[in-house]
Design goal:
single chain; about 45 residues; mainly alpha; elongated
Length: about 45
């Protein structure tokens, strides 16, 4: 996302999605575990 490209309502919608979507939370937890175990960010 580039600043200034989206309206306030579009940004609010995207932020709300990031905060409430369980898939993002699951992916973040997986990445956190990889980083903590010193695997880095591997796909």
């Amino acid at each position: 996302m580039k600043p200034g490209k989206y309206s306030r309502s579009q940004l609010e919608e995207k932020v709300c999605d990031l905060l409430t979507n369980p898939l993002y939370k699951q992916r973040a937890a997986t990445l956190g575990e990889q980083i903590r175990s010193e695997k880095g960010v591997e796909e």
